[in-house]
Design a protein that fits this description.
With 96 residues, the protein is of the alpha+beta class. The protein has a single domain, classed as Roll (Methionyl-tRNA Fmet Formyltransferase, Chain A, domain 2). Helices cover 19% and strands 36% of the residues. It has 2 helices and 6 strands. Strands 1, 2, 3, 4, 5 and 6 form a 6-stranded antiparallel β-sheet that branches.
């Protein structure tokens, strides 16, 4: 799906019930999404292509979406940079 649709869906479920994905078989909730680039051609939807302090960049079916906050099971909601350091999320990780 295109970046604008993915970002809109994540925002629609913020704060409850929360949009989620799987990272390394853990169900992770996603929050504070926005479109980074609607025109970029993508080949691997769900692949992490950027790790910033304020957000992670993820490929969608068409374009890139930014995720500003994430929440691992049983943990509090964290800013992207804190989540990346604590969860050891890396470039090219796949959000399923």
């Amino acid at each position: 799906r295109p970046a604008d649709k993915v970002a809109a869906q994540i925002r629609a479920f913020d704060p409850w019930p929360g949009a989620w994905t799987k990272i390394d078989n853990s169900r992770v909730k996603l929050f504070s999404a926005f479109v980074v680039d609607e025109t970029r051609s993508t080949k691997n939807p769900g692949r992490v292509v950027g790790l910033e302090e304020d957000f992670i960049k993820v490929e969608t079916g068409a374009g890139l979406v930014g995720i500003g906050e994430l929440q691992a099971p049983g943990r509090k909601r964290l800013r992207a940079g804190e989540f990346v350091r604590g969860f050891h999320l890396s470039l090219n990780a796949l959000l399923e």
